[in-house]
Write a structure and sequence with these properties.
alpha/beta; Rossmann fold; N-(1-d-carboxylethyl)-l-norvaline Dehydrogenase, domain 2; 2 domains; 11% strand; globular
Length: 493
């Protein structure tokens, strides 16, 4: 049994002033429903939102929805939605966040979720459900109607289980209740994520019976906005050591600790149907065009992160800070950014892209975060198109050889093929297509055979890229080098 009391509203007066929420949580009404109340949202959008409320007011309290597990609900509900944000850099600091005012578990409280989506007070739905939560084919952006749960949601039998199903059924209830306009804001790492979400909602409506789907789609066109956004903050998985440190700093047990870095960035398309928090007062950039920022982040940070994670995990590096200290891997990451990615970017006026790359390298070096390479390596089939394949496609079209981005793809192939580090440590393959990846590589005995098998995944690679002989050659060469000499040999100039 814990020796200290658990964090909740009654604990707030006992905290140091700098550790307390910026707003009185009890004063907030719920204006935002957030799908995917994981660590990232709590360390990013929820922090921006609380700071915006503190600066400009508004009933923008958050109801956090957990999709697949009761874990976060069980952590935060006994704590009245409170949790601490532990920032780790040269110095550590901790503050209790107070913007999350309600929680629900969608699998058990689907009716309450639908009621919240239809409530007049709900004016904004935000999402961090990860790339796989959209149930789409990354190469095409279309809803995967063959997915059993998508098909079940389309049938209308029972409460919806998928994110898009929940949104569309919630919008239908909102239309029926005449509850007014609403905004759906994706905060996931997808290019043009607002347009992707709009398209998936449209796909779902189009798959409904015409009398139902067409009228709903017309209402959505008039009443719902789908702005795009770009989010950036590194948020590793919380450990027992992190929770123990927070207990020492606060004097209370917090089961919902999130750990993050000092850096944060949020760029949001300013297109809202029913108002929004004053996020610009918290440092967010509100703009008419998110795309240039989005491409820089997805390709420079996320593309490098994935390449670093696969190479690092294969080499036996458990954490990002260890992997980036490996000279060969560090050289690949720097070259990937400067030689492969930077020429594909439309850099906003006044933005120093070289300084941004240096800043990313510094963030990767932060040893206090202990960001696990296998955490970044998960869901590779959903991440590769946004993080590396766009860069590769554009550089090939320009007549260049994106050798370092192709090595990142080859490292993913080696990871899902051998499923162990060079020292024999098992590596988990946590991916929606994990079974198919296993089937495709099970009988492949050579790098060429593995590359051919994995490039047959059209939902990941599409049709055109695998048909490019230079791309196939670069990926196969990288995979062969990793297979023959390991990461050290493959990353040696």
């Amino acid at each position: 049994m814990s020796a200290v009391a658990r964090l909740d509203l009654h604990a707030l007066p006992g905290l140091d002033a700098a550790q307390r929420p910026l707003v009185d949580p009890r004063s907030l009404g719920t204006g935002i429903v957030h799908l995917g109340i994981g660590a990232f949202h709590r360390a990013h959008q929820a922090v921006f939102t609380e700071e915006a409320i503190a600066a400009a007011g508004g009933d923008w309290g958050i109801c956090g929805v957990s999709q697949r597990s009761r874990g976060v609900v069980d952590q935060l509900r006994p704590q009245d939605g409170l949790y601490s944000v532990l920032e780790r850099g040269e110095r550590s600091s901790v503050r209790v966040a107070g913007a999350v005012r309600d929680l629900l578990f969608a699998a058990e409280e689907g009716e309450r979720l639908q009621a919240l989506l239809a409530a007049p007070g709900t004016r904004l739905v935000t999402l961090t459900v990860t790339e796989k939560g959209y149930r789409h084919d990354p190469a095409t952006g279309r809803l995967r109607r063959s997915d059993p749960e998508v098909a079940a949601d389309l049938s209308g039998n029972g409460l919806p289980r998928t994110v898009v199903g929940q949104l569309v059924r919630g919008l239908a209830a909102r239309r029926a209740a005449d509850a007014g306009p609403i905004t759906l804001l994706s905060c996931d790492n997808l290019p043009a994520n607002g347009e992707v979400l709009r398209g998936l909602v449209g796909d779902f409506c189009a798959a409904l019976p015409a009398a139902e789907g067409e009228a709903l789609a017309a209402w959505i066109t008039e009443s719902v906005r789908f702005p795009s956004s770009m989010v950036d903050r590194i948020v590793p998985a919380t450990t027992d050591e992190d929770r123990a440190q927070v207990a020492r700093l606060l004097g209370y047990d917090d089961h919902g600790v999130v750990v993050t870095e000092p850096f944060r960035q949020w760029v949001v398309e300013d297109d809202f149907a029913a108002g929004r928090p004053a996020w610009e007062r918290a440092g967010a950039v509100l703009t008419a065009d998110v795309a240039p920022y989005e491409a820089m982040k997805l390709r420079l940070l996320n593309g490098s992160h994935s390449t670093l994670a696969y190479l690092g995990a294969l080499a036996g590096h458990a954490h990002v800070a260890e992997a980036i200290r490996d000279p060969g891997i560090a050289g690949v990451v720097a070259a990937l950014m400067a030689q492969d990615v930077e020429p594909t970017l439309a850099v906003p006026d006044g933005f120093d892209v070289a300084a941004y790359q240096r800043q990313l390298i510094e963030r990767f070096h932060n040893p206090a975060l202990r960001h696990r390479t296998v955490q970044i390596a998960m869901d590779g089939t959903q991440k590769l198109p946004q993080r590396l394949l766009g860069t590769i496609t554009e550089r090939l079209a320009a007549g260049a050889e994106p050798r370092f981005a192709c090595l990142g793809v080859a490292a993913w192939m080696r990871y899902v093929w051998v499923r162990q580090a060079e020292d024999g440590t098992p590596l988990p393959v946590d991916d929606p297509l994990a079974d198919r990846l296993g089937e495709l590589t099970a009988q492949a005995a050579t790098p060429q055979a593995v590359a051919d098998a994995l490039l047959s995944l059209e939902e990941v690679f599409g049709e055109d890229l695998p048909a490019n002989e230079r791309f196939r050659a670069l990926v196969t060469e990288g995979l062969a080098a990793l297979t023959k000499g390991g990461v050290a040999a493959a990353t040696t100039p």
